[in-house]
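User: Second chain of the day. Same drill as before.
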Amino acid sequence: MFSEKLIQKLKSAESVVFFTGAGISAESGVPTFRGEDGLWKKFKPEELANFDAFLKNTELVWEWYKYRKQIIANVQPNPGHYAIVEFEKIYKSFAVITQNVDNLHRRAGSKNIFELHGNIQHNYCIKCKKDFSDELILSKTEIPNCDVCGGLIRPGVVWFGEMLPEDQWNGAERAALSADLFFSVGTSGIVYPAASLPYLAKRNGAYIVEVNPDPTPITEIADEFLSGKSGVILPQIVKIILDEKEN
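Assistant: Same format as last time:
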């Protein structure tokens, strides 16, 4: 299933990066946004996922995000997430760059993570920036307000029209530039600027491996395309690495 070239790259790589999207989370039961069953088939993103919509219809936006938070609280990391944790134990230079906001990489045990689109389990006041726990937010029936300044509390995700967090983006760029081996896993490859990272890694000499059930725009530049679920494919790759180390 895996080429000799990939096996050699796994053995020689010093810096490994995983770039993940909605597909890996879908294997845990987190609904995707695009596709036939995607959440945006039922709701218009501009009505729920931008700052103006939040100010105009705060109650509706919070109802939507509480629904999403409850879904995510009830799912677990899957074998794909746990395989990525094993990669981090094997390689000295390692990073996860994710477009997902579900916190599943962190819950699985990954440590060096760049969350490009924020984290849905993070909440903060739009005025004083104080952080608030999900437990507090989900326990409230009314619109949540800050207990310090009275400002509205919002989910810690990046909405349409907002800039990516500068520290997360800069860290992701540095990781992509330094990668010897770059895995693109479960991402559609169409959401920019995040989707530019595989191209950046490729231009700087990284070996690009795409893991996805279906081809994407990234497939054209991938050195290898592995068709299937990350929860099946990634544990198999980890086993190959560990077997090679034993021999």
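The chain has two domains: 1-30+77-117+165-247, 32-74+119-157.

User: Great, on to the next one.
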